[in-house]
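User: Can you predict the 3D structure for this chain?
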Amino acid sequence: MSYGDPNNPYGQPPQQPPAAPGYGYPQAPPGVPPQQGYGYPQQPAYPGYPGGNMMQQSMPGLLVTARVFLFLISAVQILFAIIYLYVGAIASDAGDSGEDLGLSGMGEAGDAVAGIAIIGALIAAALAVLSITLGVKFSRGGQGVRITTVVYGALGGIVGLIGLFVGLDSGLATAIIGPLIWVTFAVIITIAPVVPSGTAWFNRPRY
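Assistant: Here is the predicted structure, written as structure tokens:
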């Protein structure tokens, strides 16, 4: 009995050729485990660049508060500028009226008061512009904005402390509330860029 005879029903079945690999799926060499994802090896995840995962994406809360205070202070400064201009106009008109009535020296006094009021209005307007500029620059500004804000807040705190001492000396509650609020605003504006979160915000890379 020959097992090699193809007509022998008791012989071994003929060997079948190996199945062809599926279309589009590359055959892995012997001994290599199959790869996932259509035969392409999975790429390892790219590690974050140094410090990349620690980059701050939003402004710290203390800086946001300082920014709001800057905008509020600018509104007060604009209001003072308007008041000073109005007082200067009233003083000028009063001096002219006094001259018309024959009161000597009224015109010069009115002009002097008007000049002082106009200077005060210009200073208040310039400070308002500075406050708004610093507040706007918080989002993109660097060390220059940070240092200017610290100096500006410190000077404002000194002025507020002087007003607070005067109010305490007067004994009037209404003379204390305003300077106290001003000092509080100035302290927040001064320390916000100095704390670690504020320093990191102004030192962050910009693209």
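The longest helix spans residues 61-100. The chain has five helices and no strands.
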